[in-house]
């Protein structure tokens, strides 16, 4: 199988300014195409921005104006565009991620472990095949739970994309502030499931209702062979696009999993019954 080139984009998403954010997606998509990318990937809630009232701007998929714009963009550049968008469906709001390509909408995943106001949790994982690669999506805090990534791996995932919008209070003058979890969890999820795993966050500083919010612009792409393919190492939280090349043939760990020689195949499911007992995931807190 030929390598897959992904343009990972830690982009700025203006609170509530959909038109500006779509222009930004276009700009970075054009750059990704020039670099030879097959997929360009944007963070969680890239279309509407990540703020308390994102749900008020939720749109239907695929009939909404933003999805229609992105469909036209993917056709124009002959590229796959993966991006976060707040979705409205049947009276509910969802934190979703769509992938559109020259052939149309190919994937829609709804965040399972929601924390956004007035949004409902999704109920299933999602896999899509692009250029022969089976790709799964996890959104933001989904990666804090090991079970969904394991389910994706058992269903045949080769690669998991992890768009995020972790906003944190600014830490002094350190614009590259990154919590350890944002670095170590992608490597853990990659190794324990023998999949490639790519984490990327929104970038930039915002002020909302007088409160400063800092998005660090993290980028980490992990190989199941326990090393970084790429990692953003500068101390800035400005926008950045980095290219990651995924080559399944180069990973001994991935090949071992496919041949049944990796420890994921030695699990003991009868022991894990407690994992599916207890209360279901809570719904997000209701906003004012």
Topology:
Layout: E1 4-10, H1 18-34, E2 39-41, H2 65-77, E3 80-89, E4 92-101, E5 104-110, E6 127-130, E7 133-137, H3 146-154, E8 159-164, H4 180-193, E9 196-201, E10 203-208, E11 211-216, E12 219-223, E13 227-231, E14 240-246, H5 252-258
Parallel strand pairs: 1-2, 2-3, 7-8, 8-9
Antiparallel strand pairs: 1-14, 3-4, 4-5, 6-7, 9-12, 10-11, 12-13
3D architecture notes:
By secondary structure, the protein is of the alpha/beta class. The protein has a single domain (4-276), classed as Nitrilase/N-carbamoyl-D-aminoacid amidohydrolase (4-Layer Sandwich), CATH 3.60.110.10. Helices cover 21% and strands 30% of the residues. The chain has helices spanning 18-34, 65-77, 146-154, 180-193, 252-258; strands at residues 4-10, 39-41, 80-89, 92-101, 104-110, 127-130, 133-137, 159-164, 196-201, 203-208, 211-216, 219-223, 227-231, 240-246. β7, α3 and β8 form a beta-alpha-beta unit. α1 (18-34) runs parallel beside α2 (65-77). It is globular. Mean pLDDT is 90; it is low at 284-288.
């Amino acid at each position: 199988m030929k390598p897959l080139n992904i343009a990972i984009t830690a982009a700025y998403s203006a609170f509530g300014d959909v038109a500006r954010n779509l222009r930004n997606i276009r700009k970075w998509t054009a750059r990704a195409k020039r670099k030879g990318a097959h997929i360009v990937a944007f963070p969680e809630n890239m279309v509407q921005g990540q703020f308390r009232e994102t749900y008020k701007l939720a749109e239907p998929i695929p009939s909404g104006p933003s999805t229609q714009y992105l469909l036209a963009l993917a056709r124009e550049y002959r590229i796959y565009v993966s991006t976060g968008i707040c979705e409205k469906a049947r009276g509910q709001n969802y934190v979703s991620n769509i992938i559109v390509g020259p052939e149309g909408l190919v994937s829609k995943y709804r965040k399972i472990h929601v924390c956004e106001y007035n949004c409902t949790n999704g109920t299933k994982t999602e896999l899509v095949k692009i250029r022969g690669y089976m790709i799964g999506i996890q959104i933001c805090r989904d990666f804090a739970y090991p079970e969904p990534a394991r389910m994706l791996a058992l269903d045949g995932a080769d690669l998991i994309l992890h768009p995020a919008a972790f906003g944190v209070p600014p830490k002094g003058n350190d614009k590259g502030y990154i919590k350890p979890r944002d670095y170590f969890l992608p490597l853990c999820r990659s190794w324990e499931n023998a999949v490639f795993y790519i984490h990327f966050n929104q970038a930039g500083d915002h002020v909302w209702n007088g409160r400063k919010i800092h998005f660090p612009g993290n980028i980490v792409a992990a190989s199941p062979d326990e090393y970084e393919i790429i990692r953003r190492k500068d101390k800035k939280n400005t926008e950045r696009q980095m290219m990651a090349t995924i080559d399944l043939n180069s990973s001994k760990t991935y090949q071992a999993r496919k041949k049944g020689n990796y420890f994921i195949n030695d699990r003991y499911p009868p022991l894990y019954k407690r994992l599916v007992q207890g209360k279901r995931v809570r719904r997000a807190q209701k906003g004012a």
